[in-house]
Amino acid sequence: MDHAAVLAAYDRQLRHDTTGEGGDTRVERTGDVVRVTGSAHDWNGVLWADVDTSTADAVIAEQVRHYTAAGREFEWKQHSYDRPADLGERLLAAGFEAEPAETLMVAEAAALPAGPELPDGVRLVPVTDAEGVRLMSEAHLAAFGEGDAALSERLARRVLAQLAETPDDIVAVVAMAGDRPVCGARMEFCPGTDFAGLWGGGTDPLWRGKGIYRATVAYRARIAVERGYRYLQVDATDDSRPILDRLGFTTLCTTTPYVYRP
């Protein structure tokens, strides 16, 4: 994989030139900023900003005013190569909170290995309706705990909206151990680009180390290839990064989500 070429394509297609997320969200270009504004359950945030030490603070303040007026929490995801070098410090000074850093990883979907055999009694079930989304939410809570209930509820609303409004742009799946949901994962397509994004995949601690997450990656990779997408992109946590490394994903950079809550 040509690291520089793939990173340039990622920047261009998913950040600078993105056309929209569908549903109630809209992509706005104002000055040197590309941002997404949607409903309260949508992802709201800054995708791209061409700023330097002389303009960063004013641009940050303008985004705070915009989203505060809309009553929206929003995210500014700083990539490790973004400029200026002290952008993170400036965001903190403006009232943002830094969330745990993630690793941006990419793989060619067609080159990924087939998934391992699932443990006895575990099956992957496509999520297509409200009942499937409920099971995904239960899997999320099993993986991350009740402290993540608010995020789980917000994700559930977002997935329900996507399934209703833009069903061709999302694939979701839940791993069931008998009648117990133990892992939920989804893939979001970016029409007109080479990329599909993998999200979720947290697994119930009692079922980790059995190949379930790897099986969900292989399941989604196969669908991405069938739909003509070349790359899979993941914002990997420290838990999933070693697994993705072994599967053949390449690290492009690190990212830090900075969140502003009005």
What do you see in this structure?
Keywords: Transferase. InterPro entries: Acyl_CoA_acyltransferase (IPR016181), GNAT_dom (IPR000182). There is one protein chain. By secondary structure, the protein is an alpha+beta fold. Helices cover 34% and strands 31% of the residues. It contains 7 helices and 12 strands. It has helices at 3-16, 56-69, 87-93, 130-144, 149-165, 212-226, 241-247; strands at 26-30, 33-37, 45-49, 74-79, 97-98, 102-108, 122-127, 170-177, 180-189, 195-203, 231-236, 250-260. Strands 1, 2, 3, 4, 5, 6, 7, 8, 9, 10, 11 and 12 form a 12-stranded mixed β-sheet that branches. Strand 9 and strand 10 (195-203) form a beta hairpin. The mean pLDDT is 94.
Radius of gyration: 18 Å
- Counted beta strands: 12
Could you describe the largest sheet, including whether it forms a barrel? 12 strands, mixed
Overall number of domains: 2
| CATH superfamily caption of the largest domain | Gcn5-related N-acetyltransferase (GNAT)
In CATH, the topology of the largest domain is named Aminopeptidase
Provide the residue-averaged pLDDT: 94
Q: Give the end-to-end Cα distance, rounded to a whole number of Å.
A: 41 Å
For the record, the CATH architecture of the largest domain stands as 3-Layer(aba) Sandwich
- Proportion in β-strands: 25-35%
Extract low-pLDDT stretches. Answer: none
**Helix proportion:** 25-40%
CATH class of the largest domain: Alpha Beta
What is the overall silhouette?
globular
Figure out the total of helices. 7
H/E element order: HEEEHEHEEEHHEEEHEHE
